[in-house]
Amino acid sequence: MGIEMSENYLWIIIFILLLVIGLPCRIKIGKKRNVQKELGIRKGEDIDNYIEELREYFDFLLSKRVAVMFKEDVNGGQELLRKELKLTLGQCSQGDLHAKLYVKGHIKQWILDKKHINEAQLEQIIPFGQPEKLSNKDKFDILLYDYKKKFGTSGFQKLMIELPKELEHSARITKNELDYLYFDRQPVLRFPDKVELVVQRVYEQFLGLGVIDELRDMEIDGLSCGVSGGDFFNLLKNQKASKEGSEVWIFYKGVMTALEFLRIPTQKELERISRKVYRYGHPGQLSAKKGYMVSQMQDGSRVVVVRPPFAEGWSFFIRKFLPEKAYTLKELFGSSGRQVQLLFDLLECIIVGEQVCAVTGEQGAGKTTLLKTLISFIPQQYTLRTQELVFELHLRELYPERNIVSFCETDEVSGREGLDLQKKTDGSVLIIGEVASAPVAGWLVMAAQTASRFTLFTHHAKTAKGLIKAMRNDLLTAGGFQNEMAAELQVREAVRFDIHLSKGRKGERYVERITEILKKETEGESERELIYWDGTGYQKLVTISSDTSKEIKKRLTRSQQNRFEQWLFKEV
After folding, report:
1. Residues 444, 562: one domain?
2. Dihedral, CA atoms, 144, 150, 151, 152, nearest 10 degrees?
3. Which helix (H) or strand (E) covers residue 432, if one does?
4. How far apart are CA 115 and CA 180, in angstroms?
5. Which domain CATH number covers 464?
6. Whether 426 and 307 share a structural domain
7. Same domain, yes or no, for 266 and 334?
8. 429-476: per-residue pLDDT in tens?
9. 16-21 own/partner pairs: CB under 8 Å, 24+ apart
10. Within 10 A of 28 (CB to CB), how many other CB atoms are there?
11. Whole-model pTM above 0.85?
């Protein structure tokens, strides 16, 4: 009897232990499934299997065995296709849209011809006919496809306009807002549309940039990933999907906005995408010793990638520089503000008057865009030479009829060396994309005084005083000066105007003020704030100093001189 009771107790204990062990496991599995659904990770007609089969298929097409087979083609057409495929596979994720379309065409052909995919199989990958089963990513992909089909690369802009939310500074677009737009619009998808969406899903996980692949190609200012996500970075070791994931942030119309419904699910996937985005032009390898990379994509987008241990986790930042026309000042800033012509006349006079100007402001304030516009005032006979960290200005596309040469800093050629070379290329006007280092600041001061007619550059300074102080400290760091006063005097001798840009909470951009930097302090005055934006229009505070006015007048035509004098004597 006692033995039987002991055995019963033993079985009860075993049952309880199994229950205790098994229940958390089931909960964990259940949670994992929910997370996977939320992040758009789905098995069914398994995409992972598709990717593995595709990898084998492409390996076969590029193999030596196939190369030998192709040589039997007397016209060499098949061999040419093989080489083209090999080339595009390396370029498709680096901003080359033609390469991307070419590779996606191969994937589509493979899915239709090799897999003989049907409607039911498509539904297993993305449940188009069951809206309640669609993940947030599914809904976004379908919406973006629908808008892109109608509006091209402007599709995302149209989508943002129709979202039930007015964008604010550091706004968030929520899942509820996405749902509202999806069910309000109710996109109608036919079989070819569903095929295209499945092809995109396979491509982005196989060769592309994951959840941001299509978004990156839209007309946005930029995006970043790996910058948010709750417990995300606590999962660096186990590589599991986070409950939060890493949100995608877009930079759109001067506003940084989180897309709450679009997330990179795992640290492993974030690392995969990060390693792809910077590879254009073979810039080298990221490593534990080389913890960051500044590069660009094929379309000119600037890319910054950081990794551990330099950063807490993998992150990347893409800043797009969309193909632009040469905007007029009215197109940039409008013409409705009070006294806006006061701004336009002053900007034109100081550029035509060949004054060294800094364009300052925070990131996204529109410095580069304004710089491109100001170039339109430079006389046609003047040759332009630019120096950039990465190519962003693309002036030859905007002004193809002009004499322009652009240089870019590399690991082998420093910015200082590039600027030294400028003197030997018959350049009249020096344009520096960004003064971001002590050597470049030092050379700018020298070049502004001796090597060029005048110089235009951008800087992140918040005030004119801050600009002078920063450049003064750069001269001291560069080693050319030991005395602060002497260094500051050199800056004041070189730089004449600070054009400061700002942006509002909703992303609107405007010239906040224009300040004249005096060569030396006069009667306690070292800078002159000439005009400023008061919220409704422009106010003139003081006129330009007599010394600077004389310098400007020398370079103006008679009609320009008359307009300039009207500005000078306009009542304060």
Report:
1. yes
2. 70
3. strand 429-432
4. 35
5. 3.40.50.300
6. no
7. no
8. 988 888 877 877 887 887 777 667 899 999 999 999 999 999 999 888
9. none
10. 10
11. no
